[in-house]
Structure formats: structure tokens, C-alpha cells
Amino acid sequence: MSKTNQSPEPVEPAAGSGCCGVSGCCTDAERSLDASVTVTEAKTNAGCGCVTDAKETGLPVVVVGAGPVGLAAAAHLAGRGLDFVVLEAGTQVGAAISEWGHVRLFSPWRYDTDAAARRLLEPTGWRLPDPDALPTGAELVRDYLAPLAEVPALAGRIRTGTRVVAVTRHGLDVTRTVGRDEQPLLVRTVGADGAVTDLAARAVIDASGTWGATNPLGHSGLPAPGEEQAAPYLAGPLPDVVGRDRDRFAGRHTLVVGMGHSAANTLLALAELAKAAPGTRITWAVRGSSVARLYGGGDADGLPARGALGTRLKKAVQDGEIDLVRGFTITRFAVDSSDQAVQVTGATPDGEHVIAADTVVAATGFRPDLGMLREIRLDLDPATEAPTKLAPLIDPNFHSCGTVPPHGERDLAHPEAGFYLAGMKSYGRAPTFLMATGYEQVRSIAAALAGDREAADTVQLDLPETGVCSTNLVTEDQLPGSTAQDDGCGTSCATTPAPDPIHQDGTEAAGGSCCGTAAPEPISIGVGAPAGLGFTTGIEHGYSGEAERADA
């Protein structure tokens, strides 16, 4: 006789368990009476005496990633008197930023550092560099992250060359429920020598970012056939065209794929290189039929810097310096060993088109690496791969960075008690991340871990009065110094503030910038070695605003 599926009988609260907000308090049968909170949070909120003070467990908080947001998390934890350790896969702090060290940020120094980090740095004699200067990625590491890693409160707690390969719950895989919250988290690492080490943690803040987990070049979110075999011909999103990587591009044919600011950065740098290196050819392939979004509004653009750079890019295309191929959807790669080129085949409105190139610059953005998190319980939005509560606040279909509201620990929490995604990785595939937002995230998380619920819940998007905004990680849409992905922001806008940058209705000031209306003057930045003009990013009403500008 077959059994039918039936819902289990509800578990009645054990006698005397009301104070804990759970059923079967302090037994293996305990469950939170409020399904929206964990057992530990229910006990803590109810003031139950049978929950151990997490600060007394003797286990550290593990922070994954020693970039700006990871080190800001460490600074806030230190300020709260909590034990912690920072794990960094690279050989130095800010290792990912160092890979695009030639890029100059849009935001000046005054907006690139975290408040808790500055409180640790200033007693050492550190002083903020020229507040109005725009640092390169290399300068951000050298003049901020490296000194921060050496302050007494952080020194000795940062382990470089230590890659996190998995996070789980000690003694339990993801399927086990009973008593789960009472077991410590377990972080498995692999050192530079290949040694595997397991670390027990009271909490984990994954601020490892998305650098290195690139989106594929094929369509529909999938790699194109042959893409893996073509890997030797593919360059990252921000090659140092006129510097470190010059020999790879000089006198050769480069195909740039993507319609974000990293594509624009590379295209203009290649155009500069072509003036000095005969035989340098540039092809720019985009899936859409319009590039108006990247060109901006020219002289009529509400943001002069964006309009200036858009005008330069448009002129380079019109003058034949850059061969623009619209409506190009990559369908396969083939390596031609006879002439050491890669054949990139794409579907276009006029039929199949093949582009032969020496190098393909993949400026198609990033996605989070979730493989290391298979054994913990995540609650992620199926579209953005961001925490479910955060996802509607950052959805790029309706938001650019200026319309993302403040959010904190409660929005970042997962069913796995004590685990948090923070920084760019918390935004999943959404390109609306700001460095300032990441700093506020980890401030709120640290407050919650210290038991300061009021501080954790008092969250604000602390943007400067000028509306400057920036991020720490390089993603699809970047120019020199920009770190925004696709249509997102993460740039320094150098604009006056929007009337209310935290409204969730998608409203932006004139020009559709991520930060507000235009400043009187553009910001001068570098495009590789040559000087150039940077521009801000952000589509009014997110992706949904694209249809309004399909005119180029």
C-alpha cells in the first residue's frame, strides 16, 4: 500500500519555551515559531537565557577577501572588540584591484575609504592623500589597503595566499536540520603550498567579490561552443593596452565584445595605441542594434564628462578607427592554428558573420562564484543571485545605483545563521553596487554580530554631498577608474546630488546618472596612458530605460 504525502503535524511549543521564541527550547526538537527568523535569532530576540553569547564562543568571525569591503569588515569587527581572521586568496591585500591597477577611479580619495578603517589608520600617522585627487587602483592598494592591513588591530589577522574552497556547517551537510544553528560554521581553505586547513567560525562574511568569475561570451548566459578552447586568445575585461599588455595588441587585430564602460575604456585605449603602432586594428561587436546608451547624449548630455567620452567614442567609430558590428550574437569559436588567429562566428540580422582576430577582449561582466557555498543554506533570488530580500532593491531592470536604498544585516541574512554575502558578491549579477554601500553593509553586520541590534538596523546610504559614488570591483561597465557593471554605477559622478538618492521608485535627476544632475565641469581621468574624460553611468529606470534611447 503506497503512502500519500502529508504535511507533518505542527510541533507544539514545549512547556516553558515561550521565552525562547522556539518550540522544544534547548532540545533537538526546537524550531523557530517565526519561520522568517533562525532559531538563534528567535532566542536572542526573546532574551532567552539558554542561548550562549556568541562573543563568548571563542571562535572568530571569518572574513573572506581582503579588498576594500573585506578590510572594512575587519575594521568594524575590530572596533566592536570581536575576534576575526581575514582570508585572501591573493599574495597581498587588494590582489584583485592590483590586476587593474592602471585604472583610475572616478571618485576622489575623500570618498574611497571606510570610516572605521580611518579610525584605525589615523593614530599610526596615516593621512588621507589629496582629498580631491583620483587614485588609480594601484594607488588605492598602496596608499590605503596596504597600510590598513598593517595597523595593530588587523596585523597578524590577515592570511594571504589562502583560498577558501568551501563553507559548511561543522559535522553537517546542507540537508541536516536538527541542531544546525548550534554547530559552528566550517571554512575549508587551501594554502599556497596546497595544504588543506579547516577553520571553525562563529560567523562568515563572504566579501570575495566577483573578479575572476566572468560571464561567458556566448548568448543566453552560456559559453559558445569552442569558447573554452579559445581561452588563450581571450583577454580579461580591462587589459593594460598601452602599458603592461601593449605587445599583445600593438600591430594586431583586437575584437572587443561588450557594451559597457570597460569596453569603452579598451576601445579608446586601442585607438590611442593604433596612432603609434601601425597595423593595429579594432573591431567592436555588440549584441544590440543601438549603442546610444554608451555614447550618451553628446553635448546635450546632462553629465558633461559622460557626453565628452561618448562623443570621442562615437567619433572614433564614425572616422573608421573602430569597426562597429551591431547585432552580433556569438555562436561559436574556432582556432585557426595556421595563422594563429581565432575565428569568432556570430549570428546577425544579415546572416552569419565571421570575425578573425588575434585577441578577443571579453568585456561582458561577472557573476558570483557560488560553488564554494553548496553546503550552506542560501536564500538567493533566481534572477540576480542576490539575497532574496536584497534583490528587489537592486534589480537592474528597475534600478541604477542612485536608486538603490540603504540596506543592512537583515537584508543580507540567509537561512544559514551567521553567514553573510557582502560587497559586490552580495549583488550577484546586478550591476548597481557602490563601494559606500558595501561599507554600510559590513558596518551593519558587525553591529549585529556584536549584539547591537539597534545599530545594525539603523542603516543609511552615506553618499557624499556631491553625489560621488564608487565601487571597488571592476565589472562589465568600466572606464579608467570606473567599476560598474553593464548599466550599473560604481563610478564617481562628480555631480550634484539627486533630490533623494534612496527612493525606490526609479526616479533619477536629469541625465539619468547614478548620482544626480551634472556638475559644471567634467572630471579629467586617464584612459590608459593618454589623458581622457571619464563619464558616469546608469540608465534611468534601469534596463527598462533602454528602449527610450534606441536611437544610435
UniProtKB/TrEMBL annotation:
Residues 61-381 form the FAD/NAD(P)-binding domain. GO terms for molecular function: flavin adenine dinucleotide binding; monooxygenase activity. InterPro entries: Auxin_biosynth/cation_transpt (IPR050982), FAD/NAD-bd_sf (IPR036188), FAD/NAD-binding_dom (IPR023753). The keyword Oxidoreductase applies. It holds the Pfam family Pyr_redox_2. Keywords: Oxidoreductase. This is Flavoprotein. The lineage of its organism: Bacteria, Bacillati, Actinomycetota, Actinomycetes, Streptosporangiales.
